[in-house]
Design goal:
The protein has a six-stranded parallel β-sheet. Strands 7-6-8-9 form a four-stranded parallel β-sheet, with helices on both faces. Helices cover 42% and strands 16% of the residues. By secondary structure, it is α/β, with parallel strands linked by helices. Among the domains are: 52 residues, no CATH class; 146 residues, Response regulator (Rossmann fold, 3-Layer(aba) Sandwich). α8 packs parallel to α9.
């Protein structure tokens, strides 16, 4: 028989976060003695005299949340990440309690799911915002933010540096002697619209580092979706003077851009070089194959899971801010071989 935190919360009148701490050996000392006593009485009343067995059960459940108001679980990058996360979480001896896309429900429904499904920790993918973090912190002790960009929020995080990744693509284009480099991707940070997106900032600053002029007409705002990359590339191809190269801030964007170029009889990389970011499985099978940033998926996922589990089990107590390395994968779309 499994007991849920909401049952104890109802019985004691305490919050589920307080009860979670009481059942966690590393957090129990933060709970007031009178609250702990209420929980112990409730456990006995509900037929649970062995508190240790309850604690161990709670430690084996992990939630996964795609923290984005626009992306769905079918998004190419996140579907790959979530599939790998789920597989590797099970390999570590844990179970996935739920997989939720923030975009698929309003905040009240989301909070109800989180509050009624107890987990020891949660992995947040994508652009985490303060409102979602506030909800999570009400019910969950251990929260791991895992994304392609840093967040300023006070939360443990395992990330790939999107700023450096975008700069690396521009550096590569410049090494092939391209000087007119366009950008297709998000301009504003999705979670914080007053801030520019890290990849866009990396693009601009890399141009400046190579003494290249930033041209706003070469910038096309796009979500990280195939359809948006397709539409943005159509706009780009209407320029009177085309760029020599295009940095797409995601492989999904690049896939759409390549399709638009083919429909307009523009050869990649002969007429316009192109590169993406993420190294999706499909990227090496495109024609031309896509130059991109490899996020080292296996390493990225294992570090995320290991850091969260170490936090859950009390092996790590200090705040985590871990940057995962990446690789530049040079394929046909950038025109490197043509220039050599």
């Amino acid at each position: 028989m499994k007991i849920k935190l909401k049952d104890l919360a109802k019985e004691t009148g305490l919050s589920m976060s307080t009860i979670s701490r009481a059942l966690n050996e590393e957090q129990a000392d933060k709970v007031k003695p009178e609250s702990q006593q209420k929980i112990n009485i409730a456990l006995q009343k509900l037929g649970y005299s062995n508190q240790k067995s309850i604690r161990l059960e709670q430690l084996k459940l992990i939630g996964i949340i795609l923290a984005s108001n626009i992306k769905s679980l079918s998004h190419l990058l996140f579907s790959e990440i979530i599939s790998n996360l789920e597989h590797n979480i099970y390999k570590k001896g844990y179970k996935v309690q739920y997989i939720i896309a923030e975009s698929s429900m309003d905040s009240n429904v989301l909070e109800n799911i989180i509050s009624s499904n107890s987990v020891a920790g949660v992995i947040c993918l994508g652009p985490l915002n303060q409102n979602l973090l506030n909800i999570l912190q009400k019910y969950i002790i251990h929260i791991m933010y895992s994304s392609m960009n840093y967040t300023d929020l006070n939360v443990d995080q395992v990330v790939l540096n999107g700023y450096k990744a975008a700069s690396t693509i521009v550096d590569h284009f410049c090494s092939i002697n391209y000087t007119k480099i366009a950008y297709i991707g998000p301009i504003k940070n999705i979670a914080y619209q007053k801030k520019e997106h890290e990849r866009f900032i990396g693009y601009k600053n890399a141009l400046e580092a190579h003494n290249l002029i930033f041209d706003s007409t070469m910038v096309f705002n796009s979500l990280d979706e195939i359809e948006d990359g397709y539409s943005a590339m159509y706009k780009l191809l209407n320029l009177k003077q085309l760029p020599e190269a295009v940095l797409c801030a995601g492989d999904s964007i690049a896939i759409g851009a390549i399709r638009a170029a083919k429909e307009n009889y523009v050869e990649i990389p002969k007429q316009i070089a192109l590169a993406g970011m993420d190294n999706l499985k499909i990227s090496s099978y495109l024609s031309p194959s896509l130059t991109t940033i490899d996020i080292q998926m296996t390493n990225f996922i294992n570090l995320t899971i290991d850091m969260l589990i170490d936090k859950i089990e009390g092996k790590l107590t200090e705040p985590i801010k871990l940057e995962v390395p990446f690789d530049l994968i040079v394929r046909e779309s950038c025109g490197y071989k043509l220039q050599r």
